[in-house]
Design a protein that fits this description.
single chain, 247 residues, alpha/beta, TIM Barrel, eight-stranded parallel beta sheet, 8 strands, 42% helix, 17% strand, globular
Length: 247
């Protein structure tokens, strides 16, 4: 099983402890995410130490109006590391940052260009900015991973362009019927599962700090919604993660 998006550097417990528990739960691969330059350095250090961990490196939209946005050249250098498999997370967030959308657009465009230059996938954060996110991604030729999919209006462009759609623990919540309906329509070769650890713990463990081991609950919810066998879906998601991230 693959956890396609975790913030191991933001978790309270040591990455080695979390990775061990994930392995005991059947999780063999974790993509840990950098959200800025220092975070990306930490993500790479974790990936170097822990078997089965790789890193996506980016500057997230919440820092678009900060000095961090001027460090893309440093990000380019970090992405040369063999354990770096994607750019991101990057994108747009009009929910938490509507006032900084111009800066977010500029930073997202710069990271899209970087992913294109380096031949890497882009891991995308989108909240309440579906139309503009789709417009900005339309010209990107590489693999796209829509992380923590929560914008059903992005489903149509995702299906049309063959983007990967990654579901987090919120797909398990009782009121998340629209997300489960969206998951039913994602092609079997474009579906991913993630935790977004330490955030968005799935319903069976809601109220706890999320961790990669808990991706099994998201997998179970996706399998139930789609009418898939859990083990078959886990294997399909592994194949998809390998394809998306070049593992």
């Amino acid at each position: 099983m693959t956890d396609a998006h975790a913030h191991l550097d933001a978790c309270d417990e040591a990455a080695s402890t979390l990775v061990q528990r994930a392995r005991e739960a059947g999780v063999t691969t974790i993509v840990t995410i950098g959200t800025g330059i220092d975070s990306s350095r930490t993500a790479l250090a974790i990936a170097e130490r822990e078997d089965g961990v790789v890193a996506a490196l980016g500057i997230d939209p919440h820092q678009a109006a900060s000095p961090e946005a001027g460090r893309v050249d440093e990000l380019r250098e970090l992405l040369a590391h063999p354990n770096a498999v994607a750019v991101g997370e990057a994108g747009l967030d009009a929910h938490h940052g509507a006032a900084t959308l111009p800066e977010q657009r500029a930073l997202f465009e710069e990271q899209l260009g970087l992913a294109d230059e380096l031949g890497l996938p882009i891991v995308v954060h989108c909240r309440e900015a579906a139309e503009e996110t789709a417009r900005m991604l339309a010209g990107f030729a590489g693999p796209v991973v829509l992380h923590c999919f929560s914008e059903p209006t992005l489903l149509e462009p995702a299906l049309a362009h063959g983007w990967y759609v990654s579901f987090a623990g919120n797909v398990t919540y009782p009121r998340a019927g629209a997300l489960r309906d969206a998951a039913v329509h994602v092609r079997p070769d474009r579906l991913l599962a993630e935790t977004d650890s330490p955030y968005l713990a799935p319903q069976p463990v809601r109220g706890r700090r999320n961790e990669p081991a808990f991706v099994v609950h998201t997998l179970a919810a996706l399998a139930e919604a789609r009418g898939d066998d859990v083990q078959d879906l886990a294997q399909a998601i592994d194949r998809n993660a390998r394809a998306a991230f070049g593992l």
